[in-house]
Design a protein that fits this description.
It contains 10 helices and 10 strands. With 301 residues, it is α/β, with parallel strands linked by helices.
C-alpha cells in the first residue's frame, strides 16, 4: 500500500455530537440526538478502517495560538477537557497517544517552509474539544496515534487579505505533507471544521430536544449546499475560488484554516468527495465528508 497522505475527512466538532453518543469518557449524559450526523460518522468510520492508516493528523480551530503554528508533540497525553461554552455537554477524560516523531518533523518542515512553528511538549497541556470531538467521532477506540495542529489566530486580528489567509495555511499543509512523506507514514488528515457557523446564543432545555434544532438562517444553509455540491463533484478549484465569499457571508470556520490546510496536505485533488451526512447543531451547518486518494495514488496521480 502507498505511503503519504491517503485521504482526508471534513469532520465537524460540535460537542453535541459526542454528547449524543454517551461515551464512557464523557461525564455528561444525553438521551441521544443529532442522529443524522452521528450516523454519518458511523459510515465514515467504516471507510477509515478500510484505509488502514498509520496516523491521524487533525487541524483544530479551537486550539487557538496567537503566535505561530503549534503541534502536539507529547508522546502520551492524559487529562480532562471541558468545553468553555458547553461545559454541561462536554467534560471528557482523554487518553491520547501522539506520534511525536511526526509532530517534530512537521515543525521542522514548517520552519523550512518559512513558517513560525513550535512543538508543544508540555505534558500537562489540556487538549481542546475540537481536536477531541473530531478524533473520537471518527475513531472512538483511540487505537491509532494522532498529531494535532493549532489554528494560528492572526487572520482575526491582523486583517490579512483572503489570499494571504489561504497562503499561510496552504504552506502549512505542504509542510505537513512533506513531513508525512519523509517519515513514510500512511496518514489521514482531518479538518475539524463546520460549514456555516452562525449559531444561537441560547440552547433549549433539555439541550437534546431535537424539535428545536435547525439552521440559523437560509443564507448559511444555501451556501453550505452550494459548497457541498462542488465538493461532491470534485470541483476543488471552484471551491477555493468561492472560499473568500463563503467565509464572508456564511461565517464558516474556514477562516481558521483547517479546510485549506487539509486540501493543501492532499495536494488539492480534483476527486469527488463522499458525503456521509449533513445537519445542524445549535444553528451551525455540519457536513461529514471523505476524500479518498488511494485510487488516484495507485494510478499515479
Amino acid at each position: 500500500m502507498p505511503d503519504g497522505v491517503i485521504a482526508g475527512f471534513l469532520a465537524p466538532h460540535a460537542p453535541h455530537f459526542l454528547y449524543g453518543e454517551n461515551p464512557p469518557q464523557n461525564e455528561a449524559r444525553s438521551r441521544g440526538g443529532w442522529e443524522v450526523i452521528r450516523w454519518a460518522y458511523e459510515a465514515a468510520r467504516a471507510d477509515l478502517e478500510r484505509l488502514r492508516p498509520d496516523v491521524l493528523v487533525v487541524h483544530s480551530p479551537h486550539w487557538i495560538t496567537p503566535v505561530g503554528h503549534h503541534v502536539l508533540a507529547v508522546p502520551h497525553l492524559r487529562g480532562k477537557s471541558v468545553d468553555p461554552i458547553f461545559p454541561n455537554l462536554f467534560r471528557y477524560h482523554y487518553d491520547i497517544t501522539v506520534d511525536a516523531q511526526l509532530a517534530e518533523a512537521i515543525v521542522e518542515e514548517a520552519g523550512a517552509h518559512g513558517l513560525l512553528a513550535r512543538a508543544m511538549r508540555n505534558p500537562a497541556f489540556r487538549v481542546d474539544y475540537g481536536t477531541i470531538v473530531t478524533l473520537h467521532m471518527l475513531r472512538p477506540d483511540w487505537d491509532l496515534p494522532v498529531v494535532g495542529l493549532s489554528s494560528h489566530s492572526w487572520p482575526y486580528w491582523d486583517g490579512p487579505t483572503p489570499d494571504e489567509e489561504i497562503r499561510e495555511v496552504d504552506v502549512l499543509g505542504k509542510a505537513t505533507r512533506a513531513a508525512i512523506e519523509r517519515l513514510g507514514r500512511r496518514a489521514v488528515v482531518l479538518a475539524s471544521n463546520s460549514l456555516s457557523h452562525r449559531h444561537f446564543s441560547e440552547e433549549p432545555d433539555p439541550p437534546d430536544d431535537m424539535s428545536q434544532e435547525h439552521h440559523y438562517n437560509d443564507l448559511g444553509y444555501r451556501w453550505d449546499v452550494r459548497m457541498i455540491e462542488l465538493l461532491r463533484a470534485g470541483r476543488t478549484r471552484e471551491v477555493f475560488e468561492l472560499m473568500p465569499e463563503f467565509t464572508r457571508e456564511a461565517l464558516p470556520e474556514t477562516k481558521s484554516g483547517s479546510v485549506t490546510w487539509m486540501f493543501s496536505a492532499m495536494d488539492y485533488p480534483e476527486v469527488p468527495g463522499k458525503l456521509y451526512g449533513y445537519g445542524a447543531a445549535i444553528g451551525t451547518g455540519n457536513a461529514v465528508m471523505g476524500f479518498d486518494l488511494t485510487d488516484s495514488i495507485v494510478a499515479g496521480r
